[in-house]
UniProtKB/TrEMBL annotation:
It comes from the Eukaryota. This is DYW domain-containing protein. Pfam families: DYW_deaminase, E_motif, PPR, PPR_2. GO terms for biological process: RNA modification. Belongs to the PPR family. PCMP-H subfamily. InterPro entries: DYW_dom, E_motif, PPR_At4g14850-like_plant, PPR_rpt, TPR-like_helical_dom_sf. GO terms for molecular function: mRNA binding; zinc ion binding. It comes from Prunus persica (Peach). Residues 237-329 form the DYW domain.
């Protein structure tokens, strides 16, 4: 609970105080550390398991492979996977293959990741293919991305993710005709994109925001804070990364869209609603974009705040201009 709520230090305190530990508690702390980008700590706890008399389970290996994926530790990930299969004699589950595809894809080894999927002894699911599709998008491999998206459309024809990813890849090339075709296909099939949203809890109340949200009772104050943040970021030399806005509009409109991303709105609300130096904890339902990531690093430095963001994949701890992910996510 503590690790999933962003308090990994409290999770560690609870774990260290346990009078007795079993494989479940070890798995919980290893997975929690991995989710928070504490990769060296996750590896350290994994090494302590067997000397403590606890045999790693298949779930343990999901946690440790996830840790390797978050840090780009390809060789170590391969080693753990081979050890699990050939030394511990555990049968890999679909989740283990998914972790390996994610690890290889993030590191740019797209062909190896695709080959792994095609040679799996079990039928790959949509989650495994999505890991490869996300990597194609991140690495800018449009040809493979289109191929993978088509596979996903057959596997899960009413899941918006593959259509949105394909549309975004076309948009990154400026191929607006192809973008229009994908969006028309979505409309014909009544497939709707999941809206991006961020939430922040203050005094037991959850405040939710979407992009360009003006529905909050304190919208005017939030807007003023966003303007101040934008000015401060400019003084720090930050320039909005408009390549993240995959819409057919001019540069000024793109900057405006970035300005009102939901995680920035939630951050602005947190800054005006809490005392100085109070940590801000934000949850986002999608992957944080690169512009918001670079902005939040600077915001943490400018306003001297720790900002903890849980996106769809992991936690980011922003503090003093740095992020716990070391810009690898």
């Amino acid at each position: 609970m503590y690790s999933k709520c962003g308090s990994i230090e409290k999770a560690l305190l609870v774990f260290e105080k346990l009078p007795k530990r079993n494989v479940i508690t070890w798995n919980a702390i290893i997975s929690g550390l991995a989710m928070h980008g504490r990769v060296e700590d996750a590896l350290d706890y994994f090494k302590k398991m067997e000397p403590a008399g606890v045999v790693p389970s298949d779930v343990t290996y999901i946690g440790i492979l996830s840790a390797c994926s978050h840090a780009g530790l390809v060789e170590q990930g391969r080693s753990f996977f081979n050890r699990m299969v050939n030394v511990i004699s555990l049968e890999p589950r679909i989740e283990h293959y998914g972790c390996m595809v994610d690890l290889l894809g993030r590191a740019g080894l797209l062909e190896e990741a695709e080959e792994l999927i095609l040679n799996m002894p079990i039928q790959p699911d949509d989650v495994t293919w999505k890991a490869l599709l996300g990597a194609c998008k991140k690495q800018g491999n449009i040809d493979m991305g289109k191929r993978v998206a088509e596979v996903l459309m057959d596997l899960a024809p009413h899941d918006s993710g593959s259509y949105v990813a394909l549309s975004n890849m076309y948009a990154s090339l400026g191929n607006w005709e192809a973008v229009a075709k994908v969006r028309l296909q979505m409309k014909d099939m009544d497939i709707r994109k999941d809206p991006g949203g961020s939430s922040i809890e203050l005094d037991g109340v959850i405040h939710e925001f979407v992009v360009e949200d003006e529905s909050h009772p304190r919208a005017r104050e939030i807007h003023s804070m966003l303007e101040e943040i934008s000015n401060q970021l400019s003084l720090e030399g930050h320039r909005p990364d408009t390549t993240q806005v995959l819409l057919n509009m001019d540069e000024e409109e793109k900057q405006s869209v970035l300005h009102y991303h939901s995680e920035k709105i939630a951050t602005a609300f947190g800054l005006i609603s809490t005392a100085p130096q109070t940590p801000l904890r934000i949850v986002k339902n999608l992957r944080i974009c690169e512009d918001c990531h670079s902005s939040l690093k600077l915001i943490s430095k400018i306003y001297e705040r720790m900002i903890i963001v849980r996106d769809r994949k992991r936690f980011h701890h922003f503090e003093q201009g740095l992020c716990s992910c070391m810009d690898y996510w």
